[in-house]
Amino acid sequence: MNSGTAWAALGTNLAVGAAVSTAVLLAAFAVGARLRLHRVVDIAWGLAFSAVATATYLLSAGHGDPERRLLVAAATVVWGLRLSAHIARRSRGHGEDPRYTALLDKAPGNRTWYALRTVYLLQAALVWLISLPVQAASYGGGPVGVLGVLGLAVWAAGLGFEAVGDHQLARFKEDPANRGRIMDRGLWSWTRHPNYFGDSLVWWGLYLLACTSLPSALLSLASPVAMTLLLTVGSGKRLLEKHMGDRPGYAEYAARTSGFLPLPPRRQPSEPRR
């Protein structure tokens, strides 16, 4: 791997990235506090990554490899804007997310300022941490090699998996005949969380693009690890399954369907062999 990372310039970018992510989440807080609807933070999540990637692309001009800079910025913006648009469409006409209601019910004092600390500022910090590969890749020297191409392939697979899973679920919910039923078709028959699995792949792909040197690879490794843990044992899969656990048919669905990695559905003892 090429060791030509512009470390001093990257250090400045890390500070700017923190300011940009905080600014986006503070703007989301202002909207959420005014509407008394803190689920807007989920829409801001993808927008914040897109903003950090755009700022990084502009700041890194003259430092990193131009092709790598453009690829990593475009990949992040495409992922972030698609995710934000999807969540905005999905949230339209709905009230507060039960996760945030449960969290804010525990507020020891003013709920609004508690939301600022535990929801918005926390997510700003996570955006900065998880965007480390985007920032590091933009200052890496050397052309995009085999590892970079592999990273783009993993990113594309993740984006496709996430987008298809979201589309399948949206179509399923649009059919009145499916009201009260558990989605167990398409990608959802192979994993209970195709969107979360795709998200994880996206960030492992971006991480590979940042592996231009050993220090850069080590710096960026926290990103895909943090995202994967967030999706599997943090606020993603764990909380959603806790919310879904009492739904009729969910226990049977969980018993036959992989929790994260896509795997063929498990045959239940009562099912005949095909």
Give a nutshell description of this structure:
With 274 residues, the protein is mainly α. It has one domain. The chain has helices at residues 7-35, 40-59, 66-91, 98-104, 111-130, 132-137, 146-174, 194-209, 214-220, 222-232, 237-244, 250-256.
Overall description:
The chain has twelve helices and no strands. With 274 residues, the protein is mainly alpha-helical. The chain has one domain. The longest helix has 29 residues, at 7-35.
Give the termini distance in whole angstroms: 49 Å
String of helices and strands: HHHHHHHHHHHH
Q: What percentage of residues falls in helices of 4 or more residues?
A: 55-70%
The biggest sheet amounts to: none
In one word, what is the shape? globular
Helix-strand makeup class: mainly alpha
| Rg, Å, rounded | 20 Å
- Low confidence ranges: none
**Subunit arrangement of the protein:** single chain
Mean pLDDT: 91
Task: Please indicate the count of domains.
Answer: 1
Question: Any key phrases for this structure?
Answer:
0% strand; 274 residues; 12 helices; membrane; Steroid 5-alpha reductase C-terminal domain-containing protein; mainly alpha; globular
